[in-house]
Amino acid sequence: MQGGCTGILRTSILQYDFPMTVESIPNFTEPAAKLWKTIPADIRQRLLANVWCGQCSDATIITNFTGVVRKGDLLLVGKCAQCHGDVARLIESN
Ligand SMILES: [Zn+2]
After folding, report:
1. Domain assignment of residue 59, yes or no
2. 57 CA → ligand 1 middle, Å
3. From ligand 1's centre to the CA of 47, what distance in Å?
4. Is residue 65 part of a domain?
């Protein structure tokens, strides 16, 4: 029955890997990365998947985004996943 443990172990490692890859954010400035990391992972996913695109007139997913801090708030600038137009998302820190 020892062999049965391998599958369970592998699954838990994969689940662990996913948030780690979210942490690698090379396009963020250092202050922006620090601020981003204070946001829980599930909230971050929701923020990224709920960005308003003016061209699509709809909520979209932001891709190829960069992060900067502007006036204490986190500003994400990237591309719309649907039309590849410029989109931005301001995340107010309070
Ligand atoms: Zn769009």
Report:
1. yes
2. 7
3. 16
4. yes
* Total of domains in the chain: 1
Q: What tokens were used for 17? A: 């890997």
- Spell out which residues have Cβ within 5 A of ligand 1, the ion: 53, 55-56, 80, 82-83, 85
pTM for the model stands at: 0.70
The boundaries of the domain holding residue 61 are 26-91
Tell me, in angstroms, the distance from the centre of ligand 1 to residue 50's CA.
12
In a domain, 73, yes or no: yes
Torsion region of 38: left, alpha or beta (phi above 0 gives left; psi -120 to 50 gives alpha): alpha
Mean pLDDT score of the chain: 82
Tokens describing residue 49 = 């998947």
